[in-house]
Amino acid sequence: MGHHHHLETPIKPPVGQVEPPHRTDSTFEEIPIIDLSAASSTPAKRRELADMIRDACVNVGFFYINNHGIPDDIIHTTVEASKRFFALPAPVKMNLDIHKTENYKGYTALLGENTDPNGRGDLHEGFDIGWESHSNASSSSRDDKSAGPMTGANVWPPESDLPGFKEPVLAYYHAAVDLGRSLFPLFALALDLPEKFFEDKTTQSAAIMRLLHYPPQRASAVAEDGSVIGIGAHTDYECFTILWQDSVGGLQVQNNAGKWIDAVPIPGTLVVNLGDQFARWTNDVFKSTLHRAINKSGEERYSIPLFFGTNYDVLLEPIPSCVSENIPAKYEVITAGDYVKSRLEATYAHSATST
Ligand SMILES: O=C(O)CCC(=O)C(=O)O
Ligand SMILES: [Fe+2]
């Protein structure tokens, strides 16, 4: 994984076709901040917001959002729960080993993942959950039993080992899923599609959330060649990711000049970045940008990405306005579920036999 979509030649639409968004040289130095409060304002403001999102998606592939609507106390209690989880004794965490489940739910130990095939393993530990309903959540109900390559029950630490964990984690999960649902119509607008374009494709949205903990990297643990890294250079698998990060810093985003730009923590914001499924939907008009994290701060770093996508049975077919005679479809059409599963298999392959 970690393949990188290089800068495309400027797109020239055939006569009579809507002009696709213009890509600049993508040598961005900063990641834009987009205020989501315009989403519930006038149609004109919503259109303006979609244009800003389009610009960020075409040129950067990353943006911060503020006024995102997830209450601070939900974030706070979830982060505290995450800290308590990672502080558990190793054997308790290893009982939840992700390799014991069919579909990548549970705990990943330090160096258990290798996000960049050139790396030696990632210096973070994680806890992964997928869809699970929650009686207090405002998310519309859905069929938890739906078949598919990525479904399956979450695993949770026993209440006796870690009281009061599942409740706040699911509260944040559902708040972030609701936020993700509200972004799909804006992405559709940004692509000059009807706002409802993704509606029938997101009734059972993929939504994998990870609690992540990056211990501080001692200078000696940072290999010269960067092969031991918090999370190796990669692109995400789903349509887009909603990331909460603490104030420690370490996330970096690569521009087309190959320069790593710091995604500095900005209080009150979340980071949104596009993943490879949106690159596939848009035939690379939307950019799935290479990123990595290195924690050289000397402090513990915590983050929470939520990878958001369509239903797993949806085919990743290019949007008609993004393909033409001059720009043929670049990607083989497969389902979202098969695509994610193949990417996860590659990521965990290197540790699968060790447990
Ligand atoms: O922890 C971060 O800041 C980034 C995490 C990330 O890129 C990922 O989990 O895909
Ligand atoms: Fe990522």
TrEMBL record:
It comes from the Eukaryota. This is Fe2OG dioxygenase domain-containing protein. It holds the Pfam family DIOX_N. The keyword Hydrolase does not apply. Residues 205-310 form the Fe2OG dioxygenase domain. Belongs to the iron/ascorbate-dependent oxidoreductase family. GO terms for molecular function: metal ion binding; oxidoreductase activity. Residues 1-24, 133-159 are annotated as: Disordered. Keywords: Iron, Metal-binding, Oxidoreductase. PANTHER family: 2-OXOGLUTARATE (2OG) AND FE(II)-DEPENDENT OXYGENASE SUPERFAMILY PROTEIN-RELATED. InterPro entries: DIOX_N, IPNS-like_FE2OG_OXY, IPNS-like_sf, Iron_ascorbate_oxido_reductase, Oxoglu/Fe-dep_dioxygenase_dom.
